[in-house]
Amino acid sequence: MRGLKNKVIIITGAASGIGKATALRFAEEGAKVAVADFGDGTATVNEVTANGGEAVYVNVNVTDTDSVKAMVEKVVAVFGKVDVLINNAGITKDAMMKKMTREAWDAVINVNLTGVFNCTSAVLPYMLEQKSGVVLTSSSVVGIYGNLGQTNYAATKWGVIGMTKSWAKEMARNGLRFNCVAPGFIGTDMVKKIPEQVLQEKILVKVPAGRLGEPEEIAAAFAFLASDDAKFINGTVLSVDGACTL
């Protein structure tokens, strides 16, 4: 991808799954990667550096503004700038609406929605000062079309789309770009633990492509949207879902 070499990328939730695949992809493109996670991201960093890339692990709680501020300050101290933020950290606490607790609602809202606000707020001063920057956020096909038992999750994934479009309108003239990627059913470790019969009868039946997506395919979408090849793409949602939403 054009324009990613030596760019500094912060990826939240980069210790595993889509976040880890994204960190490896950006490092492959020559970017410098900040592996930000509430869990231990050293394995991702080690894999990046073993392949000749540059990476640093930063522990962060995206729901805590002081933790987020410290994350960004550390990245700037190590790499000197922030060019791209990928808001990938997210959780689920599923339940049908009649059984969903306020605790489950608040937990998902705090991480998936407020966490995106916190992280974006923290990088904005740096991006506005340099008059360039890209913020990419993980939405979901669930955020566009809803899903049984995911009122809280769907609300956050629709919410980040609205935030992204608002930010694009506010700051496009400042040289900043904001976009979302909306993954479909992706073969992360969590999904691969689903019993095969359930996977076939409840999930894959909804996907015309007939398979789960790979984390690397979502990483490729992030890399494209962060690159100079996407310089005129701003405020959009890129669905990567094997046609499951048609």
Automatic annotation (TrEMBL):
Keyword Oxidoreductase: yes
Ketoreductase domain sequence ranges: 7-189
Pfam families assigned to the protein according to its UniProt record, in alphabetical order: adh_short_C2
Gene Ontology biological process terms in this record: monocarboxylic acid metabolic process
Signal peptide: none
Any coiled-coil regions, as ranges: none
Claim: Phosphoprotein is one of the keywords in the record: no
Gene3D superfamilies the UniProt entry points to: NAD(P)-binding Rossmann-like Domain
UniProt GO molecular function: oxidoreductase activity
InterPro entries: KR_dom, NAD(P)-bd_dom_sf, Sc_DH/Rdtase_CS, SDR, SDR_fam
Keyword annotations: NADP, Oxidoreductase
The name this protein goes by in its record: Short-chain dehydrogenase/reductase sdr
Organism encoding this protein: Lucifera butyrica
Classification of source organism: Bacteria, Bacillati, Bacillota, Negativicutes, Veillonellales
